[in-house]
Design a protein that fits this description.
three-stranded antiparallel beta sheet; 7 helices; SCO5389 family protein
Length: 130
């Protein structure tokens, strides 16, 4: 299971729509490692002032890697996090997470990060089985 959904939130979802705040809170509680990495990248972006910041350290275990995969492979989770933080998230190699300022999405750094070339250049033998 991807998220640990409280009964109250599930009941609300079954009877209609839920707001982003409730959804993001569920994500934060369910995927704490992914939340930690993403909030760290967003904090780095705010502190460093560039167009993007990234985190490239592989997770300590497969459980943590799974959290990143669940958070960033799900359109709804990724979208909720992007709206919450006001950034565009990008993902490579099962662990490299980047946060881009919204204004940088059409820029060269974003296009390079999400390009096939960028993915290939970010490969190494130790990452082929991640």
């Amino acid at each position: 299971m991807s998220l640990n959904v409280p009964t109250e939130l599930l009941d609300r979802a079954e009877s209609g729509s839920i707001d982003d705040a409730a959804f993001v809170a569920c994500v934060r509680e369910s995927l704490p490692y992914a939340w930690e990495i993403i909030t760290g990248v967003v904090a780095d972006l705010e502190t460093e002032g560039g167009s993007f910041a990234d985190h490239a350290t592989p997770p300590p275990s497969e459980a943590e890697r799974g959290q990143l995969l669940r958070a960033l492979a799900s359109d709804s989770i990724r979208g909720g996090l992007e709206r919450h933080f006001g950034v565009k998230l990008a993902f490579q190699n099962c662990h490299r997470v980047a946060a881009f300022r919204q204004g940088a999405v059409d820029g060269a750094e974003y296009r390079e990060f999400v390009s096939a070339r960028g993915q290939l250049l970010n490969q190494s033998p130790e990452l082929r089985d991640c």
